[in-house]
Each structure stands twice: as C-alpha cells, then as structure tokens.
Specification:
Distance between the termini: 76 Å
Number of helices: 13
Helix content: 25-40%
Oligomer: single chain
Order of helices and strands: HHHHEHEHEHEHEEHEHHEEHEEH
Bound molecules: pyridoxal-5'-phosphate
C-alpha cells in the first residue's frame, strides 16, 4: 500500500502560473506609483487549509499592491533600485535550484561563476595576480569579514585591544558595528574629519596616525561611494599614508564598485589597487536584488590564512568555496549577477553608471538655478544632497516639507542627517531617470516648501 503524499512537489504544472507571474512583473517594471496604499489594512490570517497553487497569483497581487515600488524613474531616495528584469527572473531559477556555495558538489556551476566574477573584480580594481576573494551575504557581512581579517582573522596573533580603526566621519554604520563585534574599544574607532561632501581629509588621517602609540596596530577604512553623499575618499593619498604607517588599508566599495564597469569614471577608484581588502556590493548599483556582496584581498595567502577554515563534513578532493569566511551556507546569487552581465553586457552596465553620474551633475546645475534650494556638495557619483535656502533651525522646515512632498506619492528624495543638519538627498539609480524627471521632482518639492 502506498501512502498518498499531500505535499508532493513533483509534476506540478507551473507554466500557466509563470505566465501570470510574468504579467505581474511586467506591471511592476512599468509601474509609476511609489508607495502602496496599505494603511490600516490587516493581513489575512494564516489558514489551516491552504488555498492551493492555483490561487498563488492572488497572493502575489496582494504582495505587489502593498509593497513599495522601486521601479519608477521618480524614485530617487535611497541606494535602492529595482533589479534588472533578468535578475528578477533568474532569482526564481536560483531559488528553485537553491545551490549552496558552501560545497562544490552542491554548486558546481555557481562556484565556477563565482570564481569568474571574483577574477573580474580583481582585474577591475587592478589588485594583481596574487589576489583572491569570495562572495558574502550583504555589505555589512563584507565589511565585517574584511575587518576580521585585518585584525588577524582565524590566526589571531595580537590582542584586539592593540587595534585602532580610522575611518571617515561619513563611514557606514556597519564599520562601527564590526568594530564592536570584533572587540575593538569604541575609543579606538577614530572618525577622521571630512570635507562638506563627506570625503576623508588625508591630512587629518595622517595627523591622527602620527599620534598613535608605537605598539598600536592601525586599520584604515576608506570609502568609495559614501552613504550620504556618494563621495569617494582620496584613495591614492590614503594608500600612501597607509603604506608609510604600516596600516591595513580597507576600501568599502560596497556602493562604488560598480565604477569598474565605467570606462569614464573608473579612474575614481585609482588607489584602491593598493588596498589590502575591498568590500564590493552588486546589490547597490549593479541592478541585482539584495543580498549580494563580495570581498577581495590583495594577498591570497593572507586571505587563506585569516579567513580559511577546514570543512570536515564534506570530504572530497574538490576545492570548496565554503572554506573561506564567516558564513557557512551561501546562496548562489552570483548567478543572478552573471545573468545580468550576460544579458546587458558589461559595457551597458558601465554606461548606466555613467548616466546616473551625468544626471547627478545635471541636478547640481538645476539646484544652482533654484531660488528655494541649494546643493551642499559637488557630487562625485550619482548622489546629490541639498538644503532649503533660508533659516531652518533643527531641520523643522526640511522635515515638514519632506512630509508634504512624500504625501503626494509622485516623486521621492530622502532626508539624511550630516553634521547635525537635515539634508535632502537624491540618489539617481534608475536607468530611465532623465532631466525631465529631475525637474518634475524638484518642482513638486519646491511647491511643498513650507
Ligand atoms: C549599503 C552599504 C553598506 C552595507 O550594506 P548592507 O548590505 O546594507 O549591509 C556598507 N557600506 C556602504 C558604503 C554601503 O553603501
């Protein structure tokens, strides 16, 4: 007698459902709205008896209706953009296969792809033939992994209290979080002074490094693409200072790594080739969904010693990509990036990056013509911060204006705090954002000014 399996996945019919999913996705990618109108709506209770596969599209539509859409060219608020449609579709395939980059036998193709992509980025940054790296889940994990290696990794030789981290005041929170996880005292995380665009001042870094006691071990974090301003630190100067002071040089290029694809702006990354470690984040500006990040190391042997572990529970002769880093299982999301790169090509990705930078510089000009708002920095990349002209104590006018602007649900800039000031911030990531969208969003904002 055979028992009937109620929850069998085999021989399911998916082509019809895929067509419906395709239609929902088409709606999303053509969508103009930003925020959902889900206010006060309750979630349906979890059922004891399932509704069945055929009703899945109703659930998808509910998800779509109540989610924020990132696809509109008027969505200019965060370092978050809709992934390329090829990425969205490939994600379904990657999820269905659920290959695990932990073991080569569980991800034979994805492991090859991971190695190819790591090599591509190593060459893009000019790190040299001895470099190595791995993908990790998310930017915070990437920074933590690099800083873990910087302070000794699995071959800890010096007490953590010997280490001092130097980073720009504009650094991403994940660096301060990493320092705490790694047991580096808060007083030994030094925030270096920045210019008005959040770029680290190399002179201040040098001055502070000189004040360090002899036995101290400095780790310098520079940023290519800071979170508020999208600025790039003076990497060449910082690299030289690190060399002369014997400091570990880490570059947080979670945002700026996309510059390797640009034939025009890749020069902004000059100096990163001297880095001991680099964190990269395809999820930000390479049009793939979260989480996708990676780490690169100038010296593969340091990488292997400090981030390498043995994997006793799978004994084969195959090189395992799970032998490095802090994670165990890792999703095969490299396949999504790979599919995007094959679909559009590296050249078009670079041109998309260039377009965002060109739009930010056009936005900068538009701001200079405005009577009501003004830019607060000259953008390096595709991010522009600005403020209301006139007095705005404690950012009250900015906050009130922003609520009024957002409530119209037509365009979106975000609010950020920098040097105790509340600033508007435009992040121009959508490939379809044109000058007309910038003017449109600015007009709506100007009308909302209180
Ligand atoms: C987004 C970002 C991070 C953190 O990445 P998560 O995936 O959000 O953890 C770190 N550094 C920079 C510069 C970033 O832009």
């Amino acid at each position: 007698m055979t028992t009937k399996v109620k929850n069998s996945f085999r021989n399911v019919k998916l082509a019809g459902l895929s067509k419906e999913l395709g239609e929902i996705l088409e709606g999303i990618f053509a969508g103009d709205r930003l925020f959902p109108d889900g206010s006060g709506k309750k979630l349906p209770a979890l059922p004891q008896e399932g509704v069945g596969l055929a009703k899945l599209p109703d659930l998808w539509r509910l998800v779509e209706e109540r989610s924020t859409l990132l696809t509109s060219p008027n969505m200019m608020a965060h370092m978050d953009v809709a992934p390329h449609p090829a990425a969205a579709l490939t994600s379904a395939l990657v999820a269905a296969l659920s290959n695990n980059l932990l073991f080569r036998e569980l991800s034979p193709f994805a492991s090859d792809v991971e190695e190819q992509l790591i090599d591509y980025f190593i060459r893009g940054f000019g790190l040299g033939a001895k470099a190595g790296g791995t993908f990790v889940s998310g930017g915070s994990m990437a920074n933590l992994s690099c800083l873990f290696a910087a302070v000794g990794g699995f071959e800890t030789q010096h007490p953590r209290s010997d280490f001092h981290i130097f980073c720009p005041a504009s650094v991403h929170l994940s660096v301060t979080k990493s320092a705490a996880v790694l047991g580096i005292p808060v007083a030994q995380v030094h925030k270096v002074t920045c210019d008005n665009g959040g770029r680290m001042l190399a002179e201040d870094l040098e001055k502070r490094l000189k004040q360090l006691p002899k036995a101290a071990k400095p780790v310098v974090v520079a940023v290519a693409g800071t979170t508020i301003h999208g600025s790039v630190d003076p990497l060449i100067d910082i690299a030289q200072i690190c060399k002369s002071r014997g400091a570990w040089f880490h570059v947080d290029a979670i945002y700026g790594a996309a510059l390797v694809f640009s034939g025009t702006h890749n020069k902004l990354l000059r100096g990163a080739e001297f880095a001991d470690s680099i964190a990269i984040g395809p999820q930000k500006w390479m049009y793939v969904p979260r989480l996708s990040a990676g780490v690169l190391f100038k010296d593969k042997s340091t990488f292997e010693k400090r981030l390498g572990t043995a994997l006793p529970y799978s004994f084969t002769q195959l090189p395992h990509r799970g032998q490095w880093g802090l994670q165990s299982s890792r999703p095969a999301d490299v396949l999504v990036l790979w599919a995007v790169l094959h679909t559009i090509g590296t050249k078009v990705l670079g041109e998309t990056v260039d377009h965002g930078i060109a739009m930010a510089s056009r936005f900068h000009e538009l701001l200079s013509e405005s009577k009501m708002v003004e830019a607060t920095h000259a953008p390096d990349l595709n991010i522009q911060t600005f403020r209301l002209k006139g007095s705005d104590s404690a950012g009250q006018r900015a906050s009130a204006t922003h609520s009024q602007f957002t409530s119209q649900n037509k365009a979106w800039f975000s609010l950020s705090k920098w040097n105790d000031e509340i600033l508007f911030r435009a992040v121009i990531l959508a490939p379809d954002t044109t000058e007309d969208h910038l003017k449109f969003a600015l007009k709506i904002l100007e009308k909302a000014i209180t």
